[in-house]
What we know:
The chain is of the alpha+beta class. It contains 10 helices and 22 strands. It has helices at 14-25, 59-79, 99-110, 120-126, 149-162, 205-209, 273-281, 290-293, 298-311, 361-372; strands at residues 4-10, 30-33, 49-52, 84-85, 90-94, 115-118, 137-141, 145-148, 166-168, 173-178, 183-187, 191-199, 214-216, 218-230, 243-246, 254-258, 266-272, 315-316, 322-331, 337-340, 347-351, 390-393. Strands 5, 6, 7, 14, 15, 16, 17, 18 and 19 form a 9-stranded mixed β-sheet that branches. Strands 1, 2, 9, 10, 11, 12, 20 and 21 form an 8-stranded mixed β-sheet that branches. A 3-stranded antiparallel β-sheet has the order 3-8-4. The mean pLDDT is 93. One of its GO terms (molecular function) is sarcosine oxidase activity.
Amino acid sequence: MDSSYDVCVVGAGVMGSSTARHLAKIGKKTLLLEQFPLPHWRGSSHGQTRVFRCVDPEPHIVKMANDALKMWRDIQNQAGETILIENVGMLEVEEPPGTNLKTEEHYLRRENIDYQFLSSKDLKDQFPGLVYGPGYCAIYEKSAGILMADKCLKHLQKQFVESGGTLYDRSEVIKIQPDASGVTVLTNRSSYRCKKIIVTAGPWVNKVLKPLGIQLDVKPVQAPFLYWKVKQPGAYDFTKFPIFYDVSTSDGRYVYGLPSFEYPGLIKLGPAGKAQQEAAYSTPIDPDMRDSTMTITEGSIAAAKDYIKQHLPFVDGTKPAIVELCMYTLSFDRNFILDKHPEYNNVIIAAGFSGQGFKHGPVVGKILSDLALDRLSAYDLSPFRISKYLQQKSSL
Length: 396
Ligand SMILES: Cc1cc2nc3c(=O)[nH]c(=O)nc-3n(C[C@H](O)[C@H](O)[C@H](O)COP(=O)(O)OP(=O)(O)OC[C@H]3O[C@@H](n4cnc5c(N)ncnc54)[C@H](O)[C@@H]3O)c2cc1C
């Protein structure tokens, strides 16, 4: 037996790293365990970029994102390098009559988030790289930006260790044994004792939870990154062109896009939203076999091609220049799970971040820490209750 900790966190993705950092900062003796050597590219948090935005159809998510912005700024100040590029701006576009946007506008106003409501004429005048028919409208969230995902992770982990935390990579948690006075954690290398354990295992969550007798209604799914060549140099550069997200529903699919940033001369554009997620949910993958089971579906490429043809006049939509695959953990309703194990008060679980969790990392870290320390949360945790997602009982 190595040592004893206040809290052990399983999994050093953005959620585990943010949680561990927060706990160490408030003086808790914290152990962060990661199965792979760090840094690694096999979970959901790797890569160069993630979108940071506040606009969302769920009011509690808008509030969380707005709070997370301040926390990312603090992390960045301590990091001493840019991890969040603010004010890239984000356009959320919708076909007439713009029903989704009208609701979302209300939530932004409630949180005092700076935005503009754009008519189709405003859109045409301000963003000639996007072409939409009459009646389209958009919310323009000015402060939205780009989180540098790999750098965020590096600094969260660095700040955790600098605050006195212990981080062991190449440490796969094999068994979690809760009892009346704490938890014993067994890894491939050692065993540890802690008062509380927080499971932030991303796509592996059900593998980790199986010996604890529960399975969640979440699935690891494939997520493609598609990059397309820009025909008119500079037309979609991030210094003058925003992130965009089309939430029109008549054709049953949403599309998101990022300006040229990661690869010069290429923009990122791919399917998002309900239809894509329903398709992904019906074909889950095994996170341990991701490279042998992940394949890019022709449907995702066809939807993106079609969108480019209709709306992005300066992009070559013949075929993607680069295709990269990633995976995330989808819950059936795209909501997060942040709660205690139904039987073990000393086991806290976070899962189901459904392709939109990265930006919330620091707030999730605070919420999970409060749960572990039996402190009252500043957030209404009712949307995140585990009971809705309990699938079945497996034998202990
Ligand atoms: C293609 C793509 C695009 C996205 N775009 C956005 C975006 O624009 N904006 C946004 O906010 N979010 C976005 N997301 C979502 C966001 O990246 C995820 O919600 C977030 O990274 C999930 O983090 P996590 O910590 O829960 O999981 P992970 O990053 O997967 O971390 C889990 C960790 O647990 C470790 N682990 C698992 N089992 C064990 C074990 N037994 N022992 C020890 N360690 C273990 C894993 O190795 C892994 O490191 C996107 C995701 C993808 C894939």
